[in-house]
């Protein structure tokens, strides 16, 4: 992706609300004097009334004011009102069981809320809230609380319903939960979409975009290889979230959070080789195979690259086709383009200082 494409391409991206230019192109509307992200949900202006900029400063220097709706000066794209409000409510009241009536009382349509959460996280609002509620219950049990306390914390009136839900989550009865080493999961919001993070005391087991089609299989495989997973709070999640935020804001070139995803010896070798690719650079599958002294294993390297479950930190997005083409990326090609352009700009900025 080029730093700034021609105006016709950018106008087409504006009409399509193409997220691949997020942070790399802005549109100024001459009739209003404001500038927006290309993904702004506001009514689209006429082609003759717009001018494009490569950065926020250029738009402001030209006299345009930031849009109050899409907030182009913010690092993250603003979430919809429903997403932001309900996430905060669930965080403040993780034990609450939400109903359609509760949503209507807040002024939201239940079906609209369901679609918004499915777009962002791949789950409905009810599933999102339930996962947080069960995570709270598992935390109570892990800390030595009684089953009835955990049941009440989770908002379950039925003991059998609670046991069934916990059983699906961790594969054992609640009374034996304290014996398990449980992986902890949480959603992390980024400028290019929500990511699911799974950690334990040792480090990061999974970090993937919510839209990745293979995510359900990856979660299933992680549970089989490592252990049960519960949504909740964990110091490693706090550390990971901080580094992810710094990376997306352009302030972090190298992650320090440990990665502990499990795979074969060959997969582990590929993942280690991926982490040796410098920020702002790319490699072909063939080059990666040669760097590992396995030049005949190009296809195996590609498969191991695709099996990586820790996006960005283990930078599989830095591997491209031998001809320079953007090859397959589970998190979607436009995100791969975005990440490479983001890193190119980070390295350029670093070299200027």
UniProtKB/TrEMBL annotation:
InterPro entries linked to this entry: Ada-like_dom_sf, Ada_DNA_repair_Zn-bd, Bifunct_regulatory_prot_Ada, HTH_AraC, MethylDNA_cys_MeTrfase_AS, MethylDNA_cys_MeTrfase_DNA-bd, MethylDNA_cys_MeTrfase_DNAb, MGMT_N_sf
Secretion signal span: none
Domain HTH araC/xylS-type: 104-180
Keyword Acetylation included in the entry's annotation: no
Keywords tagged on the record: Activator, DNA damage, DNA repair, Methyltransferase, Transferase
PANTHER family, alphabetized: METHYLATED-DNA--PROTEIN-CYSTEINE METHYLTRANSFERASE
Protein name: Bifunctional transcriptional activator/DNA repair protein Ada
Top-level taxonomy: Bacteria, Pseudomonadati, Pseudomonadota, Alphaproteobacteria, Hyphomicrobiales
